[in-house]
Amino acid sequence: MIAPHNDPTSRQRILGLLQRLLGQWRQQASNSGLNDDIINGRGGTRTVFRLAWPSIFEMVMVTMVQYVDTAMVGRLGASSMAAVGLSMPMTWIINGCMMAVSVGATVLVARHVGARQSSKASAVARQAIIMGAALGVVGTIFLLLAGNTIPTLLGAQPEFHQDAATYIRIFGCGLVPHFTAIILSGVFRGTGDTRTPMLSNIVINIVNIVGNFFLIFPTRDTTWFGVTLHIPGAGWGVAGAATATAFASLVSGTMLFVILLRKRSNPAHITLRQSYQPNGVIIRQILTVGIPTAMERLVISVGQAFFIRLVATQGTTALAAHHLAVVAESLCYMPTWGFSIAATTLVGQCLGAKRPEFARRHANNALRAGIITMTVAAIVLFAIPGTLMRFFTDDPDVLAIGVDLLRIIAFAQPATAFMIVLTGALRGAGDTKWPFYISIVGMWGVRISTCYVILHGFGWGVRGAWLSMLVDLCLRGFLFYARWRSNRWMHAMKGNT
Questions:
Q1: Structural domain tally of the chain?
Q2: Within this chain, do residues 239 and 372 fall inside the same structural domain, yes or no?
Q3: Are residue 310 and residue 382 in the same domain, yes or no?
Q4: What pLDDT does 489 receive?
Q5: 387 in a domain, yes or no?
Q6: Of 224, 254, 278, which marks where a domain is finished?
Q7: Cα separation of 164 and 174, whole Å?
Q8: Do 331 and 269 share a domain, yes or no?
Q9: How far apart are CA 192 and CA 34, in angstroms?
Q10: How many CA atoms within 13 Å lie on the side-chain side of 88?
Q11: Which of 250, 278, 306 is the last residue of a domain?
């Protein structure tokens, strides 16, 4: 038996290591050190990862929790699932509208933080909160009044029309804190704090699941590992799912607001004693930057809906393979979207500090990380598509089609890295109109039109549809890179801040 090592020198070394690790954690928890590295062009890829990893972790966790949330609602039956699913397009549109405020706030806050103008960053945060609250009130009133009409417009069947209306009304009651959470997440990211939005999104999803557990299902007995437990429950069904979602939004929105109030070290720190009167100049600046982003999201969402309708004409098997392949491919995007969020903050702060050369350097580092990640994803999609598809289905016909789809889209992954990362970089520069223009060209000028011709003119089926997607993504990647290389983004917000 080996005796424990009690060398005092060793203990001192261990304690010293722990102290250094604690010091590094405290430094990372404070935005000042990170922001200094950003505007001075230090840290290289390490600075990118310090901003990106919380967003990556956030996306992974949220996706996993959403799968659990969907499964819990699905236990209510097909009718209840259809009622909740029917509200998803409405949710996308609502969240897309809030992108106008959230992205605008992120970019402006990042600019002011880079310029060492904390008072202006705080003013932007307060105006964004006002805008979110006002839009939330309007949205709540609209959904309460139109709760019965919206399901009809969306094509709800009589058997789940009432459940859909109930879900929409209750969801509407949580719009004010929901909008607050979205906006304040953008504010925190603008200051270089990506960990707080990560925590918020994890909390909102966990609270949602716990709420579902107790509100959806009635009181019941369940056996775990041979132990019978009596689980209380409200048995509200779809209404319980909506209530859990609204309550989770309340928790998340309140949490972010309180953190921004109490965290004095945050450059966008607010107090209750400050003015919350609407400021037309700041509101206009937020919307000038943010509206093109909201329009971009709307263009993409509507285009994806049309694309799915075209794919649906090829039959149920083709549609199922398309859906599962999209789910499998979307998992590859998570790290790259983290780099995109990082690029927004990096570029915004550097341009605010009047250091465009560092903005370019940081964005290029984020782009390289994205390209490497998506190249690895391309290899995985091409080499083991069957393994990925078997996570979702055992149907041989669906598998055969899905494997082909993943191999087709594998060739688009490196180009997709250019599109995703440079979208964030251009947003950080306030150059939000060009991503909107490029999305119109790619989604409608290429994907939809080419898909229609391929399906109806050549009869290539869903594989042909995905070839049109491949061309779209590659073209958009090239156009984003061309815009970035032009350096015109450096002057996109001249005179607007």
A1: 2
A2: no
A3: yes
A4: 93
A5: yes
A6: 278
A7: 16
A8: no
A9: 7
A10: 11
A11: 278
Let me know whether 316 and 228 are in one domain: no
Domain shared by 272 and 415, yes or no: no
Examine residue 32 and state whether it is found in any structural domain, yes or no.
no
Q: Count of alpha carbons within 13 Å of 142, Cβ hemisphere only?
A: 11
CA distance 469 to 460: 14
- Both 245 and 324 in one domain: the answer is no
Determine the residue type at 312.
A
Helices 78-86 and 238-262 sit at what angle, rounded to 10 degrees? Answer: 40
Lowest mean pLDDT among 73-87, 172-186, 200-214, 253-267: 73-87
Tracing tokens 């840290």 back to the chain, one arrives at 43
263, 312: one domain:
no
Of 179, 192, 170, nearest to 253 (Cα)?
A: 179
Residue 14 domain flag = no
Neighbour-count burial of 194, counting CB atoms closer than 10 A to its CB (0-12 exposed, 13-18 middle, 19+ buried): buried
Query: Residue 17 domain-assigned?
Result: no
Please give the single-letter amino acid code of residue 225. Answer: F
Rounded-to-integer distance, Cα 285 and Cα 186, Å: 15
Q: Place 74 in a pLDDT band, splitting at 50, 70 and 90.
A: confident
The verdict on 166 and 298 lying in the same domain is no
Is residue 28 very low, low, confident or very high in pLDDT (cuts 50, 70, 90)? very low
Range of the domain at 325: 289-497
Phi, psi of 297 (to 5 degrees): -65, -40
How would residue 19 be classed by pLDDT, with cut points 50, 70 and 90? Answer: low
pLDDT at position 442, please?
95
